[in-house]
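Ticket #4471: structure export looks truncated?
Reporter: QA, pipeline team
Priority: medium

Steps to reproduce: submit the single chain below to the structure queue and open the exported record.
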Amino acid sequence: MISYAFLALIPAVLAAQAPSFSAPAGGPTVASSNYVGQNNGTLTKSPVVAGKVFDRFTQIWIENTDFAVASTSRAFIELAKQGILLTQSYAVTHPSEPNYAASVGGDFWGMGDDNLYNIPSNISTVFDLLEAKNISWAAYQENLPFDGYQGFNFTQPNYLNSSAPPYTYYVRKHNPPVLYDSVTSVAERNTRIRNFNDFAADVNASAIPQWNFITPNMINDAHDTDIDFASDWLEFWLVPLLSNPNFNDNKTLILLTFDENENYAINNQIYSILLGGAVPDSLKGTNDSTYYTHYSTLSSVEANWGLGSLGRQDTNKTVSNVYKFLADVVGYKNLDVTGNDIPLTNLTTTIPGPLNPNLYIPFSAPNMNATGAGGGAVFAAPSLNLSATPEVLGGPVNLTALNQTVPASGLPNSSSDSSPPSPSGSGGSSGDATKSVAGSFAVALAAAGAALFML
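Actual output as written to the record:
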């Protein structure tokens, strides 16, 4: 078994060998063959649904960096002067993929790895909430080979070094909507998973949606390089866009954040900045010490547009505080979570759920009695059995001991040119997406001395 001590050495080795940054395109709004996928036409402009503080919300995620390290890199230092630095922002677990899944689904479902999953179509996401209010959305993935691509990763010629072997720039685990069958099984939704040539065209046509998730490739997000390489990319890509009114106007909020920190031995604090024209001038260059997690992106969007909720961790008030400058406007009261009350979110593989083979519990119905920051009703897919509540369901099962894998593992609809790993499970969708994880969450986490994942 590979030890954490060994894993800790890998980033240092990669950093020592990190290549010099080279711009993949002529600019953030210029198409490039380095992005592989050709533009698939711009999105249709949709009527703008006014929010209470912002009309557009864009997330940009960087990879695996401790707060203290990101604080030393020039682009992050300079960008913090233009926005609000969130000094108590936390990821929700380790490793990468469960954090991405949580950002749109309100839970990471017990996942403690970066394996290939297809979360059943009756599990709701933020896209259900947005579409209920006719709010447009898209995900832009650098080096995605074509719109809606569902493969495990994609390897292409190395644009940094043409004499080097092909490189895997795109990975599925950093693409949150593609993890959910409720997106990939609907053609119109699936094609909203777009590449950076599409992004350039959409910006130039002033067709950027109101909710966006943006993932740089594996070198530009610091995963395979280092934080200063990511700084170079931000200076090339994000900084010019901040002056482009098609991307950033006076009703745009931009979150620049990290998926997780690097050091599993400390709590999962991440460097996060709120940028954009929606940030009041009086708050630019300031710090916000409110406790936030990735679930705060959901609750803040819900509060801004008066949306319903998912009835998951987006309604757990401990971990879903609304961005303070927004909460102050809409009258939402955050919880004061400080010191020892901040939950430990550096734990991994210890949370029961439908994507944990050692503590497996099928997907649950949401808490239909929950109240989210937007005040609307909890959204549940019509095919979900709402009677499957924590009170009537049992504890977790060790599928590994039974020589079984979680039903949601594998990719049943992969394209012919994808490169998935050797199948580790049935490859089919979960046969039962209605049973609850919540009852056993309480037991498991009480023993661990943490209660943040209770519904």
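Status: closed, not a bug. The export was complete when the record was re-opened. Leaving a note from the reviewer for reference: Residues 53-348 form a domain with the Alkaline Phosphatase, subunit A fold (CATH 3.40.720.10).
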